[in-house]
Amino acid sequence: MTRLLFAGLLLAGLAGVALAQQAPVPAPARLQDLATAIREGKVDVGRKYDASDTKARFHVIHIETLGMSECSSCHTGRNYQPDYLLLRKEERLLKRAGGEIDRGACLSCHATGGIGSTWYVGRATR
Amino acid sequence: MARYVRLIDMERCMGCRSCVAACQVENYYTPGSAWNVMVEHEVGTYPNTRKVFATMNCMHCEEPPCQKVCDAIGVKAITKNRYGVVLIDYEKCIGCQYCAAVCPYGVPQFNKSVEPLYPGAARVPYEQVAVADRHPTHRKKANVVEKCTFCWHKIEQAIADGKEDRVGKDHQYTPSCDVVCPVNARFFGDIDDPRSEVARRIGAKKATQIKKEFGTRPQVYYVLEGGDY
Fold it and tell me: Between A49, A84, A118, which is nearest B54 by CB?
């Protein structure tokens, strides 16, 4: 019985070491590299600038290259959120968009220190 | 150098939309691309409910993400001038709508086509003004993005007349939306002038900017019910 337990522990330990050796590079680090490569032009994401065209750079970068393949990654699927300071009631951001976009989602990458280009300073008023 | 800001007092706004109408007439509105919209929000629990109104126009941010993204892709159609006004050059705009995508306030409006106000009917007076005779900010084009300019054509006139100190006081030098408010819910002027009404009211009423988490430092202040958050 003791031998069996020892063998089990040994196997579990070896399996743990093997898993640790095969563990993938942490996702954030890979995203960082990918984002840098996109900005440096090392990854082909097309040359057409059109946020409403799903085949142009904007969507290619976010969906195909960065893997945000779920529409709900950005689009809320609603026309209007009850937060009146967040979105306009009358208009959609883009005519063909699948629902409004909560720009709060953009902050995680595009604020100061994020992996994306810095569009938002990400600090309170001075 | 004046730094122009707007104050919108939501405790006073009653949602009449005079400012929306004034903006449309002043700035050659074309359907589908409003520069100033009224947003309504219901608060409370039935039966004790009421509506809160907020008008939304360009915030003319001190850190405008629209300009950053436009510069980053090399288009450089958006500028922020020394008076703090963010403007779009329609001749440079390529209609990519990146500015609309990054603006936290949903301000830039893509004008897919320039439609008349009443299709099939006579043009309204402002539509009859030849495009060439209009201020550059009013020369509407299809497939470009447009937005509120703080009525830059009026401020520009004040500068030309040497009347910068009258901006926010005289109607011909003040954005039309701020002129027409019947309940004194809107003020415009130089925030760096401590004697200006807008500066005094921002301080006295503890006005704040909205969505500060984006760090855009808007030049439009709101008096929110309950104060700052």
Answer: A84
